[in-house]
Amino acid sequence: MKAVVIAFWIYLETVITGQKSCDEWKKFEDYCYMRSCTNASFSDAHMYCTDQGGDLTSISTEEEFLYIASILQDTKRVRGWIGLRRRYNQWRWTDGTWLDTTEFTQNYLDEWAQKGSCVYMRTTPSGRKKLFGESCEELLNFVCRKRDC
C-alpha cells in the first residue's frame, strides 16, 4: 500500500509540474533525499552529498528502495548513483555500513561485479527499476540522503 501511495504522489508531482524536481530535499520516513540535477562521477557525487551534510543514499528496506526509484523515475530512462561500492571484494555503503546480503541475492552481487565497482539504480518510464554495476568514472545522476532537511 505504501508503495502505491509513493508512486501516486510522484505521478501527481510530475503531472502538475511537468517535470521531476531535483536539487530539493524531500522527507521520507527518517531521512531526507535529494536527486541531483546534474551528472557526476561516483566520487564527485559522494563529495557533493557529504558537502550537503549527507551521503550517497544507502538502502535498508524495500520501501526505501521504492522511494528512491520513484525519485529517479522520469519520462525517460534514468541512471542514478546510490552509495554502494565494492572495495577489496567487499560491498560497502559510502556511509560506512556493510551491505546486508540478506537484502540482495548473490546473483545481484555477481551481476554487479561483472561490469564495475560502483552501483547505480536504473529506472524506466514504465516503472522498471534495477541495480547495476558500472565504472565509477561514469557520469550519472545521483541520490543523496541525510538525517535532517
TrEMBL record:
UniProt entry keywords in alphabetical sequence: Signal
Signal sequence region: 1-18
Domain C-type lectin: 28-145
Cited Pfam families: Lectin_C (PF00059)
UniProt xrefs under InterPro entries: C-type_lectin-like, C-type_lectin-like/link_sf, C-type_lectin/snaclec_domain, CTDL_fold
Keyword set includes Kinase: no
Xref: PROSITE patterns: C_TYPE_LECTIN_2
SMART domains from the UniProt entry: CLECT
Protein name: Lectin C-type domain protein
